[in-house]
Amino acid sequence: MPQLDRTFSVAPMMDWTTRDYRAFARTLTRRALLYTEMVTTGAILYGSPRSRFLGHEAVEHPLALQLGGSDAGELAECAAIAEAWGYDEVNLNVGCPSDRVQNNLIGACLMGHPEKVAAAVRAMREAVSIPVTVKCRIGIDDQDEDADLERFIATVADAGCDTFIVHARKAWLEGLSPKENRDVPPLNYPRVHRLKASHPELHIGINGGLKTLDACREQLDMVDSVMVGREAYQNPWLLAGIDEAFYGVPGPAQSRHAAARAFRPYIARRLEEGAKLNHITRHLLGLFQGQPGGRRFRRHLSENGHLDGACLRVFDDALSLVPERETAAVA
Fold this sequence. Notes:
Layout: E1 8-10, H1 19-25, E2 33-40, H2 41-46, H3 51-54, E3 63-68, H4 72-84, E4 89-94, H5 99-103, H6 114-127, E5 132-140, H7 147-158, E6 163-171, H8 189-198, E7 203-207, H9 213-219, E8 225-228, H10 230-234, H11 242-247, H12 256-272, H13 277-281, H14 294-304, H15 312-320
Parallel strand pairs: 1-2, 1-8, 2-3, 3-4, 4-5, 5-6, 6-7, 7-8
Helix pairs in contact: 4-6, 6-7, 14-15
């Protein structure tokens, strides 16, 4: 089975890690593992056109598809479809706390059903040759963060899963909204560290609250990989330092302006395909965060990108509002 270098990855995030964001991310890092938004098995099996859910650019690789579902047969079928579409990994979502997915036995609620997750993983692994991984929490509701997490990991690992990315918070399915579940439950990094120490044979990645490259480096002393979510989206320039810091190779962008210019041909192509400018450029709004002219850049795109007929001129004008400086990628 092929192995991916998943030392650093960008978390799957609904409405955020779209194909447009992922293509933009590749102007900043070639090596980080990127994930799709969660795609449900129903969307893949019954949605049309399938390209709406699975379409991606060659530049996005290495790229993993995150699946939402619990039926082993459907997940196996979707994993096989993902492999046929060229994805490098299939990841099962066992961490999303939203009411909608709970009602369909998708996401974090599956932490209460480790045998069901194990059956799904076993079926998916039998259907594909690419890696099958699991993203989970350290627990849900009143579960014991030690005993119940250990039972979950051991049960699913026995089914053949050797890679777990663990969001180091509980998910409270009763009493907290999905938004609150991203911040209110306290982070418990030491629990994930102990998980790795007790399972040296498994790849254990950590996710949750990581905002700097230094913080990520520190985590790699205790776990195998790091996954960054909102910070990688809201402050995308963070990605410009990934290739050098974690892989020892230069990144593709030497400045924020260079990254924006590198993305321009993609924007032009997507506009020709009928995409709306603001649907693409919304992913760049944080590119000049904290820089002179950054607010004007963001405001110009926000106020004009959604207008009928908005074209590359809007993007070019926004970029001209930011003074260009010779700045190297962050370390």
